[in-house]
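[User]
Protein folding is very new to me. Any chance you could explain this protein sequence and its structure tokens? I have pasted everything here:
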Amino acid sequence: MQTEGYTDVSINWTAFLLKLCGVWLTENSVEKRKRKIFIAYTAVALIYGVYVNVVDVYHCWGDLSHCIFLINNTLCITLAIFKLSILTLRRTEFIYIAHHAQQKFWHMNYDRNEKVLFAQCTKLCKLWVVAMYLMTQGVLVGYIITPLSANVGRNKSDRALPFKMWVDLPLTETPYYEMMFTFQIICVYQIGASYVCTECFVCVLNMHAVCQFRMLQQRFLNLWPAIRKQSDSTDYADKCYAALKKCIRDHQSLLEFCDKLNSVYTLPILGHMVVFSMMICFDTYEILLADVSSWTRNIFIFHMVGSFIHIIVFTYSCHGLIVESTNVSTAAYSGWWTTLPLNKIGRMLRKDMSLIMVRSLRPCCLTAGGFFPVSLETSTAV
């Protein structure tokens, strides 16, 4: 099927973040070289981030508030390393789901009713990506403003960096201070991109998969009225079965996509759930109890709000996947297939309809390491 390519803010931004981290698809040798450069750049930023925070924890062990701040940073960086490592190891499956989304989801070859569903899906994806982008920017800008506000009134020999460096070098002097400040901020932004890129993409994929299941339900419901005026019952059954086979292929394609999506993201989801449960405690302490500057507190406010928005939107999209994949059974059962003649085609059609309904009773879902399916109940439990 020839499809018209489609793109919007949510797709462009998530693809840009994945390219920036060296995870996105490559089509030629130039893009492959760029991907290797971005992978190396990301690895340097993440390793440097872990090193700086761990060394600072070692030297400031008695300062509880500062140590929790550093441990929270280290958890975020470690989670980003874990998620990007899984996507690299599962790159074949990742390429499959990305190509599948491009070819099967992101196009405008839909009828009028399907375009309404697609528009609702893309609107929700845009709102999610923009909200996550703004929350991430709020956190990252806090890392820039905090040392700048601390430097007000200080002399040049006592200037603060975003992250303290325990090295015997003149980092407070010009131009070394400016160079180190810029390098740390570049690393902070790269770490931020690495932290949010995978979740942004999987939420967008989830929402589009939910939309495709809703479209499939409409096709099942519209299957019978489109050919109900046929006077010849045998011809009527043949056309029903031909249309049904296309719906079955679409259903099988969606099921395979969801299986691949779960195989790629099940471990990153588990890691995110575990780390999020820890970080929410650290964020609450830094916001309510820690003796820190107002800008440092703002970092944790934006981080907590962004984390809550993320966990709610993510579990909402996973819950929609469970519900809509199950609703395919109801949509299939609601047709007029019971009125078809009991000839060979009629019996085959009844058998296939039964298989569709039985298979749909086992919902598609994303799991956290295979331990439990992710749904709206997961967000309340966390």
